[in-house]
Amino acid sequence: MSKNLHTNAMDMLLKGVLSLKDMEEAYLFFEDLCTVGELEALQQRFEVAYLLRKEKTYQEIAETTGASTATISRVNRALNYGNDGYDMIFERLED
């Protein structure tokens, strides 16, 4: 994570997310925190990452998710050069 994101406010936000007990609480919190558009963008990026890890083509991913090739490319960069956050979550979801 970028150093400028390591703030007390970000720590409080992440601790709050970690305190959520179930899916219903998560929906309630994120619907209050984010706009519908922001949530759709987050969901789309997550789905793009999942499909990239399943070795789908950019064209298949664009058709499935509606994501632009720029978004797909940005997510692909995060998968290949990021902090492995997506892969950590994907592994845990498989368990």
What features would you describe in this structure?
The chain is globular, with a radius of gyration of 15 Å. The chain has helices at 8-18, 23-33, 36-53, 58-65, 69-81, 85-94. The chain is mainly alpha-helical and 95 residues long. The model has no long low-confidence stretch (mean pLDDT 96). It is built from six helices and no strands.
In short, what is this structure?
75% of the residues lie in helices and 0% in strands.
Shape: globular
Helix content: over 70%
Distance between the termini: 25 Å
Compressed to H and E, one letter per element, the order equals HHHHHH
Number of helices: 6
Give the oligomeric state. Answer: single chain
- Strand portion, in percent? under 5%
Contiguous low-pLDDT stretches (5 residues minimum) are none
Mean pLDDT: 96
Q: Give the biggest beta sheet.
A: none
Overall strand count = 0
Q: What structural class results from the helix and strand content?
A: mainly alpha
**Radius of gyration, CA atoms, in whole angstroms:** 15 Å
What order do the helices and strands come in, and which of them pair?
Elements: H1 8-18, H2 23-33, H3 36-53, H4 58-65, H5 69-81, H6 85-94
Helix pairs in contact: 3-4, 3-5
What attributes characterize this protein structure?
mainly alpha, 75% helix
